[in-house]
């Protein structure tokens, strides 16, 4: 199986041709059945296809695509999806991780807290935003600090659910650092809860992962105690 297949790929034989969809067609500027294999496409082709589809959506909504404020929107949205907010779907954008020898014999936990999270909910395609706090205890290697932020950012730039985001960051850190001793807490607001549906602007969602030594109460407590520190 190719990497990310379950995230991205729709098997070609599962995508119905338009004539199989069984409902009336709305004729718009983009009316070609598309059978998509995301792995075969480069970013430019993705942008081109998404632009056409998004124009279709705007036309169905009744928006005036000749308006000078709107006419560039399909292209802007397509570029934003592929190159910015969903760029973490492309494994080529995975950050390279710089590791150093733990020459300083620092054997305590390292906590990188208040990492900004901007993601998007895969159910509604609206933003999730908040903070991630990650920690690890070195098993011999030390990671460049910014790489912790970059790993969080890479997995955030996908259509996500917060639980998966938390586990993906944990798995990446465990593999990069060759240790089970990692912890992640994410505290985030979901616009799909705030601005629509239940419209609750007060709640936030907290997810956590504790591996290895962080499963011990004292270590977990120490990690959590650092989260309330102000620098
Ligand atoms: N577990 C989990 N659920 C999420 C996340 N982001 C959004 N959701 C929820 O996904 C659910 C989707 O449920 P549906 O009932 O299919 O969608 P809906 O009819 O739009 O639901 P409402 O938001 O209640 O109006 C909603 O309850 C969302 O709040 C997430 O990161 N994790
Ligand atoms: Zn949602």
TrEMBL record:
Zn(2+) binds at residues 121, 124, 192. It catalyses: GTP + H2O = 7,8-dihydroneopterin 3'-triphosphate + formate + H(+). One of its GO terms (cellular component) is cytoplasm. PROSITE patterns: GTP_CYCLOHYDROL_1_1, GTP_CYCLOHYDROL_1_2. Its EC number is 3.5.4.16. GO terms for molecular function: GTP binding; GTP cyclohydrolase I activity; zinc ion binding. It is an enzyme of class 3 (hydrolase). InterPro entries: GTP-CH-I_C/QueF, GTP-CH-I_N, GTP_CycHdrlase_I, GTP_CycHdrlase_I_CS, GTP_CycHdrlase_I_dom. Pathway: Cofactor biosynthesis; 7,8-dihydroneopterin triphosphate biosynthesis; 7,8-dihydroneopterin triphosphate from GTP: step 1/1. Residues 50-226 form the GTP cyclohydrolase I domain. The keyword Metal-binding applies. Belongs to the GTP cyclohydrolase I family. HAMAP family: FolE. Homopolymer. This is GTP cyclohydrolase 1.
